[in-house]
Amino acid sequence: MASKPQAGRKKARARSTTAKPKQAKAAKSRVSKRKAVAKAPTAKQPEPARTAKDLAKGQRDISVSEFFAKNRHLLGFDNPSKALLTTVKEGVDNALDACEEASILPDIRVEIRQLSETRFCIAIQDNGPGIVRAQVPKIFGRLLYGSKFHRLRQSRGQQGIGISAAGMYGLLTTGKPIVIVTRTGPKKDAHHFELVIDTKLNAPKVKRDEVVKWDVPRGTRVEIELEGGYRGGQHSVDAYIRQISLANPHAQITYVPPKAEEHGAEHVFPRVTKVIPVETAEIKPHPHGVELGVLMQMFRDTKARNVRSCLQNDFSRVSSRTSGQILEAAKVAPNRRPSEAGRDEVERIHNAIQAAKIMAPPTDCIAPIGETLIEAALKSEVSAEFTVSISRRPTVYRGNPFLIEVGLAYGGDLPGDQTITLYRYANRVPLQYQQGACAITKAVTSTDWRSYQMQQPRGALPVGPMLLMVHIASVWVPFTSESKEAIAPYPEIIKELRLGLQECGRKVAGHIRKQRRHADEEKKRAYIVKYIPQVAVGLQEILDLNEKQRDKIVTELTHVLERSRKM
């Protein structure tokens, strides 16, 4: 038997012999890892950081044409059918504006020729004053060029983008230039232009400029070839032409749809009146609509020698007394030069302006359609049993005058089992897209039509046989995007829209109640007419009357019933 020390040494030797294989394996794995690391490629050294000069080399100016060429959906060219409609819309808007500014009754011709399944040629011709030769390339070949942006007066166009953007879209999709023929008078030459837009420079490139023979004494014709899609329905060109004629009863529009020879002759929408809309006057900015930064810029750019004359001459509705009160409240000397006024001084003036009581801006800068013409246009469009229109008094949002008009047609041939037809207009131009985002739609859906005898699902348009036409006229319509498809819901605008809708609602509710009373009376009269002979027979038996006396009773009772109908 071994002693205890010897047994301990045996156990230690046994542990050491079992540990050696494990240590050997660990050593081998370490060696293999070192070899793998040695064989692996060395890590790539990081590149030196780019300096500000390196970054500056990649920066350059962005032309507005180049921007919209890459973001054409902002202008309404985001799908083929919408692109076709937008092009027609921009051309017709320009034609109507040109004719009205020259006090000419518009005669507009719209032609759409289908060249292939997806390619169309659009032509818009007017009898307006024509365009001066030197201005043609700039108007059609340069974005943000026009005469309407800086003028505070009602007009369809505002930004100087529309028709030039349509020409740019045609160039991008087909490579074809925009073609213009224009003539300023019977004794003037007609000029034929073909031009494209240089998107990097936002400048026109004239491909052709020559004098041609044209049998039109005065006017302009624009042709654009583009990729598009023609379809019917609510958002079609056909619907747009019908709606534009409704809001412009003084214009005659001839429409030639694609394949007119197959689908019938051209469509003519005759003018309802020969009265041209009243020419609008240009107004100056109203001080209540001017922001602080804009006021500072106006002080820098003004030609006035002192702040007091600047307030009186560069703004509307600011009298000598009002300007004195504003400057006194702002603690600014009246003879202070505007260009030398500091930011704190201008801010005090701005705050004093907001607190001052200033008369609302003049309203001769807007030209409403008018209640009479709206009703006449609605009667020519649909066969309805009741028609009414309302023109609200002008009011102001952000210092800009605007006016709301509402036209309503009820009953007749209008379908009664579906949502009402809603036509939205801004400065006589139909708005056909983004209906749900528009202030007009929000005002209609938020109006309680059930109190006006109409059915209405919660938060939706009413249901019934009704066509609703809503128009906003303003020197500056607050569109939600450059494509001008929806109106921003300013509280002042929503309020006026609701008041106009409620006024029309009360009148149509009175008509509906009257019709129901008449229907109820007719039902009762029918019962009386049915039972008059039976009453006469009963009287004959009670009073022992002969047949002649009985017939006389029937006749007298019938006469009494007829007299009550006329009362």
Describe it.
The protein has 567 residues and is of the alpha+beta class. It has 4 domains: 64-269, Histidine kinase-like ATPase, C-terminal domain (Heat Shock Protein 90); 287-355, Helicase, Ruva Protein, domain 3; 371-512, Ribosomal Protein S5, domain 2, CATH 3.30.230; 517-566, no CATH class. The chain has 16 helices and 14 strands. The strands form 2 sheets. An 8-stranded mixed sheet has the order 5-4-3-6-2-1-7-8. Strands 9, 10, 11, 12, 13 and 14 form a 6-stranded mixed sheet that branches. Strand 10 (395-397) and strand 11 form a beta hairpin. The radius of gyration is 38 Å and the shape is globular. It starts with a helix and ends with a helix. The model has no long low-confidence stretch (mean pLDDT 83).
What keywords describe this structure?
4 domains; Heat Shock Protein 90; globular; 17% strand; alpha+beta; single chain; 16 helices
CATH class of the largest domain: Alpha Beta
CATH homologous superfamily grouping of the largest domain: Histidine kinase-like ATPase, C-terminal domain
| Helix-strand category | alpha+beta
Helix content: 40-55%
Q: How many strands?
A: 14
How does the major sheet shape up?
A: 8 strands, mixed
